[in-house]
Amino acid sequence: MKEVKAIEQITVLELFGGIGAIRKALINQEIPYKVIDYIENDKNCVKSYNQLYGEDYKPQSVTDYHPPDEKINILMHGSPCQDFSRIGMKQGGEVGSGTRSSLLFETIRILKEMKEKPTWVIWENVKGVLDRNMRDSFFYYLKELEDLGYQNKFEILNAMDFGVAQKRERIFVVSGLKDNTFQFENLEKRQAPSIKEILETDVSEKYLVHQPSMLKLMDTNNDYRRDFKARVQIIDDFAYTISTKQMRIPNAGLVDLGNGKYRYLTEKECFLLMGFSDEDFKRLRDIYPEKEKTTSSILYKQAGNSIVVPVLESILKEIVKGEENESIKQD
Which residue among 26, 81, 252, 319 is the active-site one? Predict the structure, then answer.
């Protein structure tokens, strides 16, 4: 039986790179990698990315980007989700519509400009792309990839199935050039621990819920809560989907402190629930110092817009396994 060859190095292009979830996943899995380029127009995300990974990138829009003439194994793009989201504007992402989510098709343009296409293209977004009034854009994206020689596979994955105490469902599309050997059913999964393992105990009063309207929602004995369509969940063993505006829209839920008191998740807790580490958050605190009376909207936004790292880790492991098995066949 032939020995499985270890992959030498994965080259990556990060579009809509955010704070580098795929890079973090590669680091965690100790997969040799080289980032060919990182494109992100949010100056704060770029600042955080540089802080986390020791880089010196500048903000840049994908609309102005032209790919380098280098071999790329994986193109990762987590294009804006706001216009696909069920809690967003629902304006969709049709080509030429001018919505933020239509920037998805800049990835197609960039792929068309490449002399040598990446072996893999990974896209993550909200599951709302499959809603009736959104799905045309989604399947048009898949058709464009097929025309470029890719085979597409997609699945809705829940972060809780990958060892994260957050109920966060996202659609992942893994597109392989020519023969797509990737199998979602082979992804390595593990049970999520209780969120109590990461909840902070000594939390500032600035995280307490003070708004009377929010507190009324938490009272199960009044008509206001029963009649209100939106529901604010109580966090028990896991959080719900972390959003970008935790303090205004606590989609992730609230922590029950007892005696009618509740608090929001802290910025650190949100980062841990996205698969980043204590050390990562400490590095970010160096450039976004904690303020006594206010929370950081920047850090909440970055956590809410990121991709859950352990999910990407499992996807990358499956891709690498397939690449190594393919190298055996070619020997």
Answer: 81
- Identify whether the C-beta of residue 114 lies closer than 8 Å to the C-beta of residue 65: no
Strand 33-39, strand 10-15: pairing: parallel
**Greater pLDDT, 211 or 83:** 211
Length of the chain: 331
Give me the torsion for CA of 316, 320, 326, 327, rounded to 10°.
150
Contact 262, 219 (CB under 8 A): no
Band (pLDDT 50/70/90 cuts) for residue 90 is very low
Q: What global pTM score does this model have?
A: 0.89
> Which residue segments constitute the domains of the chain, with CATH numbers given?
10-190+308-330 (3.40.50.150), 195-305 (3.90.120.10)
Q: Which residues pair with 120 in a beta bridge?
A: 74, 176
Number of neighbours of residue 269 by Cβ within 10 angstroms: 25
Active site residue 270: no
Structure confidence by residue, pLDDT tens digits, 242-265: 988 877 778 899 999 998 899 999
pLDDT at 329 over 80: no
Residue 226 scores a pLDDT above 60: no
**Containing H/E element for 210?**
none
93/83 Cα distance (integer angstroms): 7
The phi and psi torsions of 116 (rounded to 5 degrees) equal: -120, 120
CB 308, CB 170: distance < 8 Å? yes
